[in-house]
């Protein structure tokens, strides 16, 4: 008896997507990449000879591709029934929307048939919650300069109907970094203690804070206009204020204003200022002067 061997080859075809949408965070980039891939596939099949930059028709084709892909993933059962000319069972989650197919896209009839809206607004495209839907929501949100939930949903409903749309839009907008930055609440903290220099009684201008303000424009003796600045000296205890006018914010002008202030108000014990270059340079100059007057040769000169 002759033995026969039968070899069976089994091929498993994976339903991998054309493009991994999870690696893209922008709808514009997704549509452009998809349009270029579809152009390449069209050239392989001899159906396309388009070259150069993308045109509007290719972007529309890419958008239609992703809408059909998302609808097929979530509503394959309903689309199959409609393609066969059958009614969708009443147990379907979208049966209440009375969906129908228009050029391969699943649309809803709605209740605005008698209105004067456009056909897209009367019968929007049904779009379930997916990664593509999230990118679409974020795109409309950014295109409208970071609209709120209601305004973003209103723009989306001009073409699409998203089940639980308000909840979906609100969830996506929470991930917008710009909106989170401007809607963030300030941190709360307990009241801190004031430093000792601010609460201990002492003569005016013993503890001083200084800063620049301005610029302001003044008229000179000849009638010409000149820009000047004001050096503000304020007492940290009594809140008394002393003003000095300077022609610029250089180190030389500040030290001259400081000399006039000390000559008028007396020596100060503590000075507070910000970290600007003028104040830091003045501090280094004053530290150098302090080291000079502490030299023994100078002390022997002015001590009798």
UniProtKB/TrEMBL annotation:
Annotated ranges, domain Integrase zinc-binding: 133-183
Domain of life where this protein originates: Eukaryota
Gene Ontology MF: a single term: nucleic acid binding
Full protein name: Integrase zinc-binding domain-containing protein
Organism placement in taxonomy: Eukaryota, Metazoa, Ecdysozoa, Arthropoda, Chelicerata
């Amino acid at each position: 008896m002759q033995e026969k061997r039968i070899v069976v080859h089994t091929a498993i075809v994976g339903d991998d997507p054309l493009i991994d949408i999870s690696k893209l965070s922008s709808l514009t980039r997704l549509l452009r990449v998809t349009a270029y891939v579809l152009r390449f596939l069209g050239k392989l099949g001899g159906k396309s000879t388009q070259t150069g930059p993308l045109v509007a028709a290719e972007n529309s084709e890419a958008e239609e591709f992703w809408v059909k892909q998302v609808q097929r993933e979530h509503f394959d059962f309903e689309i199959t029934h409609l393609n066969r000319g059958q009614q969708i069972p009443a147990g379907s989650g979208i049966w209440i929307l009375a969906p129908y197919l228009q050029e391969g896209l699943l649309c809803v009839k709605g209740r605005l048939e008698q209105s004067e809206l456009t056909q897209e607004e009367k019968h929007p495209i049904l779009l379930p919650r997916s990664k593509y839907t999230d990118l679409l929501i974020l795109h409309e949100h950014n295109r409208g300069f970071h609209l709120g939930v209601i305004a973003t949903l209103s723009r989306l409903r001009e073409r699409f109907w998203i089940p639980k749309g308000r909840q979906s839009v609100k969830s996506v907008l929470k991930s917008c970094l710009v909106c989170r930055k401007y809607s963030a609440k300030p941190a709360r903290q307990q009241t801190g203690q004031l430093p000792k220099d601010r609460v201990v009684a002492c003569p005016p201008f013993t503890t001083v804070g200084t800063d620049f303000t301005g610029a302001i424009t003044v008229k000179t003796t000849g009638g010409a206009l000149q820009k000047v600045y004001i050096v503000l000296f304020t007492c940290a205890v009594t809140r008394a204020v002393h003003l000095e006018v300077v022609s610029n914010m250089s180190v030389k002008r500040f030290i001259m204003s400081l000399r006039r202030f000390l000559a008028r108000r007396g020596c100060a014990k503590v000075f507070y200022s910000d970290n600007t270059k003028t104040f830091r340079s003045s501090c280094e100059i004053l530290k150098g002067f302090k080291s000079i007057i502490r030299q023994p040769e100078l002390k022997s000169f002015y001590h009798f």
